[in-house]
Design a protein that fits this description.
5 helices, YgaP-like_TM, DUF2892 domain-containing protein, elongated
Length: 67
């Protein structure tokens, strides 16, 4: 899997995932909290299947060779 999630997008995804988990916990919504795991996972792996399908990458050119 080649990197297609840049560093800024990675941080935004992880923060968004943590926010979803927090909101889900506050409102006692397990599906919302579980949905927060997806952006955290894609942020930590720095690979997103939707970005790959669209051919989009926010990784820097120098970082692409460093899998």
């Amino acid at each position: 899997m080649e990197c297609n999630v840049g560093l800024v997008e990675q941080k935004a995804r992880v923060l968004a995932g943590l926010a979803l988990i927090g909101i889900g916990a506050y409102y006692n919504s397990k599906p919302l909290a579980a949905a927060g795991l997806v952006p955290i996972l894609t942020g930590m792996l720095r690979w997103c299947p939707i970005n790959a399908a669209l051919g989009y990458s926010s990784c820097a050119e120098t970082a692409r060779g460093n899998k």
